[in-house]
Amino acid sequence: MNLEPVLEAAESLPVPSDYLTGFDTEDLIIPREILAFSRTTPEDLYQPALENRSHHRFVLMIPLQGSGMVSLDNAVFQISPGKGMLFFPWQFHYYMDVSPTEITWLFITFQGVDPARLAPLKDHLFTFDESELDRLHPFIKNYRSAGRSGSPNLHFSLGSFLHYLIQNSETLSISTPIDGSDPLIGKINSCVTMTSGEGAGIASIAKKVGVSASHLRKIFRESYGVSIGSYLHNLQMHRAATWLATSDLPIGEIADRCGYRSQAAFSRSFRQDHGETPRQYRLLRGESRRSTGPPP
Questions:
Q1: Nearest to 116 by CA among 89, 149, 138
Q2: pTM value?
Q3: 101 and 66 in contact (C-beta within 8 Å)?
Q4: Boundary residue ending a domain (140, 167, 194)
């Protein structure tokens, strides 16, 4: 056993000036409830994204093979291998123009981190070189070997990678959104955002977009593989869940903003989607109010 390197390093340590006070930090990032998976076809991305269920987890997305675009809160980013984004809790996102050939996009989702700690990474596209992507190897290795209860190495390796991104956020070629947005979904999202209540229905949106309701239904399904009714429902449920978790808006007002004629109808629909009543959902996720604001 060669102890020479450790011996030299130990001998070079300075004598402490205070033997009762040591180094400490409040910057430690320890992600919890970690999940990692990959998507390998465009179909794997499109439908789950457009049927987005609002949730309180962070999502780190890194394309390793294949390119495309991502719309994040209606801002559009061009993505390709060596780039990545961190979606924050409650952010609505979906994918467009993904390479028709084989793709491999890595997704790592987690919770338990104060959003303020990760703020330098929000709403930005960051670029990795090969050496920076190599920092993911320990995490993937630890994830594959971790049991159901996880392992300290798994959490520390992901925390270390996130800390590296934060420390180097200004030098990782941070990119801003590209000009323009998806013309159809962009217009639909704008109509929903600017209109409360029943004015955000399909007929009203079709009129504002400048097409008939039947044509809007047809082109939406042809373009995105889901019905516009399903998409609008999920978008409104996303907004409702975000308001419940991050604001003190009365449930009746949230129901009205989402186009429901009664709070009872809204509660039934919300419970069918989320398995909880709006009141239960708010009570269980009220801690989110401290760290994130409500949507428009």
A1: 89
A2: 0.71
A3: yes
A4: 167
